[in-house]
Amino acid sequence: MNDQALFAAALLDPDAPCPDGLTTWNGSDPARRFAVYRNNVIVSLIDALADTFPVTLELVGEAFFRAMAGIFVRRTPPRSTLLVDYGSGLPTFIERFEPAHPVPYLADVARLEMLRVRAFHAADADPLTLDQIAQALTDPERLPALRVTPHPSLGILSSRYAVVALWAAHQGLGALSDVDPYCPETALVVRAGLEVQVIALPPGGDTLITGFATGLTLGEAAAQATASHEDFDLTAHLTRLLRFGALSSLSLPTEIC
Amino acid sequence: MSNNTLTSTTLSAAALALALGSALALSTAPAVGAEMEKCFGVALKGKNDCAAGPGTTCAGTSKVDDQSNSWKHVPKGSCEKTASSTSPTGFGQLMAFTAKKKS
Q: How many domains is chain B built from?
């Protein structure tokens, strides 16, 4: 290992000795100064995770969250200089972190919080306007072949747990005691202007949006979603997506199959 | 018939026109949040909303209780019924306002 790698490794390992060759300007003990710096590195990264995952933190409490985040930080230091992206691996880490298993929905709540941060920083795009939809409706024969582009900030999370209700209860919307965490929910996360919205989708909504996102046509995605769930209501789903600005364009594919 | 194989993979133009047309009519006013509204002047000190992740967050930055230019998400319709110590109307407002002088 070169000096830089040794220094970096010692920063993440509380038991590692102070790297050789460090000096201080005022004659104080380099090992003590290094220990302070090492502590600040870890604490600042734990603070960053606490900022990204506030509900995850509330669900398990500050002490548990910070201890868990500390282990994650030492195992998974940042790979990018962008702190906003840090922690994308935390949900999977939580899933495998045995002490967190008594809170089985914790990982999915963390996934939802990461989607919110991503949505906040995603590219801008104008949502579909009513005029554009009215225009598309003037030529109904072409509707099945239209491609629908989701808003760049859009994220979907299909959970076995009531992620939206759990998250909302921590925003002061409804009491946590009223939430059945074992009721499966699909969360839609999308930004309108500067505001990140979290919406619970009825069954089939994930199939419809995933279809749009993977390049299926409007007709194909609607057919798959209709087949995926017996109560699928296309009108209600499209209304919801339009109201929350979740779609950004309608276009005819250039290639003709 | 060939028509059957078509409808098994894609929804018909008529069905889509009906659904999209109804959706258009039902969605005339884009909603902000799930029936929430921004409410100015009701957040306790440091409890205002707006989270953008680490290093960028503006949430929790308000300096005083009921700060007139910091907002909190509240269920729709409840903002103007929430008491505010700084608001000239005595209640939260949907826009940032000038705080009244402390009496």
A: 1
